[in-house]
Specification:
- It is built from 7 helices and 15 strands.
- By secondary structure, it is of the alpha+beta class.
- The termini are far apart.
- 22% of the residues are buried.
Length: 283
């Protein structure tokens, strides 16, 4: 018995062959056009409000690596090398370069976004960006970000690099958390690392030091602090305590200013974002 011809499969295969032939013809056409088309313009797009790198600097990078581009045939311009050169700049996180058939070279640049400025124990000054990479300060622009000072030993070699100490990683995690929360971003203005290598948060409202410790259980610690702010601080005032310690699970230990020689602390128990108990202890 003769097998039936699968016309559907044949037509499908024929359609694929036609499409493939069309792509080959189109690519050939593009290659021919590249031999003829000259560079007529360079368009540079740098989105965002930060100005770590200016158009003039990108123009200088292009000229240094490729020479004058206007008037040259597109086939003589190494697009991939331009991308590679731009990505080597410490302020550029991403670069995309492409040319159209009108001779326009389009350059899209994404700048690195700092979330934290570090002033380390050795006097070095640098940023940590949103990807957790160290980047240098810029002569053009100073970012309005959280600043961390104190006993920070994380060094900086002058180029984009990863973090190598747990403390620096904790500072980055804390800064990222604070930046993403509108309340904490408005309330916390600085971080300080004390002699015990504990991270302290310095608030805009109130004179107390908020001892975070490390970045473990960060969301729980900050939720506990929020509960304390809402339920306890209105009763005692914003300047009643010298320190607010968040290091302990479901507890906040507050040292307050006291006129007596004996120092006193308030131990606050927090469960499910609610202050459920308070007591004073001598220490």
């Amino acid at each position: 018995m003769l097998r039936r011809i699968n016309w559907k499969a044949i037509f499908k295969g024929f359609a694929w062959l036609v499409c493939l032939a069309g792509v080959v013809v189109l690519m050939s056409f593009i290659e021919i056009k590249k031999h003829e088309v000259k560079c007529t313009n360079i368009k540079i797009l740098i989105p965002g409000a930060d100005n770590f790198i200016e158009r003039e600097e990108i123009d200088a990078i292009l000229k240094q690596s490729q020479g004058d581009l206007i008037g040259r045939n597109l086939e003589q311009i190494n697009i991939h090398q331009i991308e590679k050169t731009l990505k080597a700049n410490p302020y550029i996180a991403f670069a995309k370069v492409y040319a159209d058939m009108n001779g326009v070279i389009n350059i899209e640049v994404k700048q690195r976004q700092p979330v934290l400025r570090i002033l380390n124990a050795g006097g070095q000054d640098y940023y940590i960006d949103s990807d957790g990479l160290k980047m240098p300060m810029s002569p053009n622009f100073t970012a309005n970000v959280l600043v961390a000072t104190g006993n920070i030993l994380e060094g900086f070699g002058g180029k984009v690099d990863t973090l190598f100490t747990p403390l620096a990683s904790d500072l980055y995690k804390a800064a990222l958390f604070i930046k993403k929360d509108t309340l904490w971003d408005a309330q916390i203005e600085q971080m300080y690392v004390n002699e015990k290598s504990d991270i302290e948060l310095i608030p805009r409202v109130g004179n107390q030091r908020i001892i975070l410790g490390n970045a473990d259980s960060l969301e729980i610690k900050m939720n506990n602090l929020l509960a304390f702010y809402k339920q306890a601080m209105p009763l005692v005032g914003w300047n009643a305590y010298k320190t607010i310690n968040l290091k302990y699970v479901n507890q906040i230990v507050c040292e307050k200013y006291d006129s007596l020689a004996v120092k006193k602390a308030t131990v606050v128990t927090v469960i499910d974002s609610a202050v459920v108990a308070k007591k004073e202890v001598d220490f």
